[in-house]
Specification:
One of its GO terms (molecular function) is oxidoreductase activity. This is DUF2236 domain-containing protein. This protein is an all-alpha fold and 292 residues long. The protein has one domain. The chain contains 14 helices and 2 strands; from the N terminus they run αααααααββααααααα. The longest helix has 26 residues.
């Protein structure tokens, strides 16, 4: 092999690894390596195992788009969004919020039962103080099982849909049901009731909430922040733009309409899906160099 080719290969490998470490640090924090060691390698029983559907979904790079899809969809419930706007520091510390969410998903999916239950117990405790009124003066309480069910339904629907669109290996219908059932445990433990356990039940639950949904001022503000003023540097903007297009394309058409979002570049959802796949594939490629 020519020396120039070998040198170029080494430089590419080094650049890929640097990019992977930067992404991992942004998503999981500066102590990402220590967190990974604790979550994945601590001794103790676990709810899930590597062959489970929930491993396939939550461990895939499609989650980068899915998280954004879930936030946009969840924002359409005015009471749930009011709680986020009033009690969350997502504008002041967006990366910190993302890291806490990433840690929660990783711990409850891959971590020990002891660590997962401790984290869920802590979150349930924090929810006691998340009360208030929305923009129409309607009261909300983060412990409301109906609102907790909405947050769970919107999240799991988004994760599964983005995996279907951008995942490394799509799940069979039976495995999709397995995922919904396995993911239901966390929703129930957080206080939701009548949590879906099949894809059909998940779709029905999403449809059930539609009369309650609207693009409140807080939802539109979140949309503007997430899509138009993302907390990323200029060098990361192109990659984020691809993920943004993919995340929006994954939303139900009625949700895009409520938020005033186009189907994609020049009105083409197919173009947005292609960009989403490219963005997820790029992130998967750089992360494989770190975690491979």
């Amino acid at each position: 092999m020519p020396v120039t080719t070998t040198t170029a290969s080494r430089l590419l490998t080094a650049a890929r690894r640097r990019a992977g470490l930067m992404v991992r640090s942004r998503i999981a924090g500066d102590d990402a390596a220590e967190q990974r060691q604790r979550i994945w390698h601590s001794e103790g029983d676990r709810w899930n195992s590597p062959g489970d559907a929930i491993y396939a979904v939550h461990g895939d790079a499609s989650m980068f788009a899915a998280g954004l899809t879930a936030l946009l969809l969840q924002s359409l419930h005015p009471l749930a969004m009011a709680g986020v706007a009033d009690h969350s520091d997502y504008r002041g510390d967006p990366w910190g919020r993302l890291q806490r969410t990433s840690q929660f998903i990783a711990t409850t999916t891959f971590g020990t039962i002891s660590d997962a239950t401790d984290l869920i117990r802590a979150i349930n405790g924090m929810h006691r103080s998340v009360v208030g009124v929305d923009h129409r003066g309607r009261p909300y309480d983060a412990r409301d099982p109906h609102l907790l069910r909405w947050v769970h339904v919107a999240e799991i629907w988004s994760f599964l849909e983005c995996h279907r669109l951008y995942g490394r290996a799509p799940l069979t219908p039976g495995r999709q049901d397995e995922y919904v059932r396995q993911a239901s445990r966390t929703g129930i433990m957080l206080g939701a009731r009548s949590v879906p356990t099949t894809v059909a039940e998940l779709a029905a639950a999403l449809e059930e909430y539609r009369p309650e949904l609207e693009a409140s001022p807080a939802a539109l503000d979140a949309r503007h922040f997430l899509l138009d003023e993302p907390p990323v540097g200029w060098t990361a903007r192109p990659a984020y733009a691809m993920l943004r297009e993919g995340a929006v394309a994954a939303l139900p058409a009625w949700a895009r309409g409520s938020l005033g979002l186009p189907d994609g570049p020049f009105g083409s959802r197919n173009a947005a899906l292609l960009l989403g796949r490219a963005g997820v594939s790029t992130l998967r490629w750089v992360l494989d160099a770190v975690e491979g």
